[in-house]
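Sample pair:
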Amino acid sequence: MPVSWFLLSLALGRNPVVLSLERVVGLQDAARCSPGLSCHLWDGDVLCLPGSIVSAPGPVLVPTRLQTELVLRCHEETDCDLCVRVVIHLAVHGSWEEPEDEEKFGGAADAELEEHRNASLQAHVVLSFQAYPTARCVLLEVQVPAALVQPGQPVGSVVFDCFEAALGAEVRIWSYTQPRYQKELNLTQQLPALPWLNVSADGEDVRLVLDVSEEQRFGLSLYWNQAQGPAKPWWHRNLTGPQTITLNHTDLVPCLCIQVWPLEPDSVRTSICPFKEDPRAHRNLWRAARLHLLPPQGWRLDAPCSLPAEATLCWQALDGGPCQPLVPPLPRENVTVNKALEFPLLKGHPNICIQVNSWETLQLQECLWADSLGPLKDDMLLVETRGPQDNRSLCALEASGCTPLLSGVSTRAARLGEQLLQDLRSGQCLQLWDDDLGALWACPMDKYVHQRWALVWLACLLLAAVLFLLLLLKKNHVKAAARSRAALLLYSADDAGFERLVGALASALCQLPLRVAVDLWSRRELSAQGPLAWFHAQRRQTLQEGGVVVLLFSPGAVALCHEWLQDAASAPVAHGPHDAFAASLSCVLPDFLQGRAPGRYVGAYFDRLLSPDAVPALFRTVPVFSLPSQLPDFLGTLQGPGALRHGRLAERAEQMSRVLQPALDSCFRPPGTPGTGRGMRPEAEERT
């Protein structure tokens, strides 16, 4: 499309050297060689087929370097297009080898070798050009006289005029010979764009500044440049004069592009996509992505842009835990967004979920059949694996793995192995998938629960009798136990000294009518379930029983909170595999952000380890206590309405303070002091 001289001047700048671009007259492509070489440009474009690398039979011509130059291809004085001239530098590669049978043939072999050495070299050089949406390949025939053929030496260059491209375009150029004797050369170049469009940050938001004259009319379009399918318009205006347009940071996605052009006939449109590498844009893209079920057996991932993601099927058991990956897997290639895809299943089931992962990180998980088929079921998934010669094996998918039905392990599936096999043979299980590799069945477990009700009732009656006797014998002790309240301690494992301090606090709290849960005492469960699953189970149980979650703030915990709240504005803090505090933030933060924290959470920090204002403001919506100076109030809040009388509470607080003091002092001993860990420094001292 013709480009006005005014726009080219804006794009290429005020430098007189830049403005004095060479003009190429005419529409035809052309080629010329350096002195001593002869060259010919084949008519029309050719297919871009590099082929495989072959061995050189002797000296051959190969391209060694690519150069580009901007020129103007003009049809009239002011009717020009921006064009890319390409210069290909050539050299001789390889040499003639002495014949192995020289002694046999004697002078005849020498004569043949001399004839080859006196012959000229000829090469077919392919030049490939890509600048969206244009792709071209041209073929140049180059001949070098024998006098210039020196192995390993340059022989000259070939100049091609020229490939047309738009302002602001990214061009890619390749060059190789046919046949190909070496890896193709490549060059990528960004052509200049119009300088009157500027993208800048305005705090959390983004400003588009268009600096043009007051009379200049132009069009501005914002669109999503999707890899699959055409661009999707989002916003369009015709404007006049200088403009500043503000975009909310939540609207940014990697494929959001800006297109601007003067409202003139045959004007060039310049597009830029400035948010491809913006971390905020990538986070917004995943927040906007949605999974949808398309009856009967389809699904779709909706998102504004393409996503580097893979999808897998998994089985979510009713009792929680991680979703177990399933065979059949979905195709491992990237998911195509906004396109209907098919499940390789015979039937749907509420426990079958789909996970979308990016760079081995779980981004989305949806149990798509939950809305149409109801909540999760207490079904056992049986997995049949089929091998050669009709070899078959059957196992049940559980949290610990796939358990063989007739094994001697003490799991639910192993105990009911015979019954599950009978259900499978009698057709009581629903077949979800079947092919040459294996099959999947979902077998209901409800009836086995019903069959055991009689035993359960009998056990309950016996238990009630035992409890009644205990109630008579230890009435006062049972009353005190009934008043006990659950407390879940969450902390960041900053170092060994701080963990000892937390352990001392948890042990002291157990002396009160409190039931304390802390990951220090549950390392085996934490390793088996993972920090997130362990925290979910403990938090649910604590809150259902009317208990309280205690957030122990330390420098490491504060850093983790800032990391979550400010999206990596703070330096990432490393945490161990048993750090429930880091895992819990994904659920704790929503409670505070949505106002559900009061009455459920209490905060605390230790004197000298942290200053009061270091606790993030979001967490100060609940009571936050300094320990041990505010121990009486802290203990009273933990125990709730059934707290001890003030006098006894103060006495208990004084006892606990004496217990905590040695552990607290150990956090401030210099590194290497016997009996301590690596030590901690107060936050106030770290800032000085």
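DSSP finds 19 helices and 34 strands in the chain.
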